[in-house]
Amino acid sequence: MFVDEARVQLKAGDGGNGCSSFRREKFIPFGGPNGGDGGKGGDVVILGDENTGDLTAYQFQRHHRAQRGENGRSRDQSGAAGPDCVLKVPLGTIVFQEDPLSDEPARQVAEVLNHGDRVVLLEGGRGGMGNIHFKSSVNRAPRECTPGTEGGSGEYALVLKTIADIGMVGFPNAGKSSLVNLLTMARPTIAPYPFTTINPHVGVIHYPERFERLTLADIPGLIEGASEDKGLGHRFLRHIERCGLLCLILDMAGTDQRDPLKDYEHLLLELKAYNPALVKKPRLVVANKSDEETFAKNLARFKKKFTTIPVHALSCLTEEGLPELKKLFWKTISAAKARAEKKAAAGKVPAPAPALEAPAEPAPPKPRAPRKVAKAPVKANSRKNSKAPTAAALRKIETLAARKAARKAASRPTA
Known about the structure:
The protein is of the alpha/beta class. The chain is built from 7 helices and 14 strands. The longest helix is centred in the C-terminal third of the chain and has 26 residues, at 322-347.
């Protein structure tokens, strides 16, 4: 069963509490505080995964919680951070945040388009602080510690919009599922009654000579009045919003007593009622059931009325025109991608650089003036300005001279 919508309740992990402890060792009477911090709580993360096909994993398991962080421990040990809660979703998933207590519509908070994209929806709580952070010169034995903060929580809606190169649109029993069965390895249900396809199918068209591939999305058939919720309504039309080419399949033989010209007009009206941008997308009309007798007559009427619309004749029963259609798909998608790249490049063309002027000749350096060095003033007749020695200084000089003479006389050898 294909599931493209799911509602989940998410809760990030709480932060661990801080620790209040003291160092207790022999011969260390005042060890001081050594309580560690609590660990951070785990986050809730959305991860894009190309190997995930739909949202079946979240249809019956709605509650998802990340683990809390560990509490801090003594000896300055911080608690371990809680592991993240990773939700793998298929590419093209849009995340809406819902508020059950408010009447406001859901708010889009994330969109996953590429493989490996990570979006943090809810952050885990911060860990509490241990008592080591509260020590000071006036509080040498603090016993305070803080608890961890609470992690975020909320209710979210996951909506999948399939990313495909080609989108198949048509009325029931037009041959959409038969064409997907012939071009790809997908196996949708095929039966001679309407609404055999009740879920979207995505197949892959391989081009081994080019080493390339295209993705093909088949949605349930539309009927007149689908915008008024008749049939399956517009529920599955969101799967072709991102398609680069719309393939409108018509039962050109009119086997169910239908007029293919009116079917084409009704299809355009339903697409426009859902999203006017779909009508502006490149489209290709595939006229199926060319093996019937009334096919040629209806095809001539169609080409006469819609002269600018490209039409490709096809028979899913005899496989006539199938190789040509496969090549036409590649040619149309390649041209559309080239136009998109050219348009994107035109919007990013850098402004022309200003013309460079010839550099002016450098002016000759100005001669530097000789630096004047201020000379220190010389004191004239410094000896005269010096003060006369005092009586105590004279007595000290005489005493030193007498000691020196006595030592010299004592060291002289006697006869």
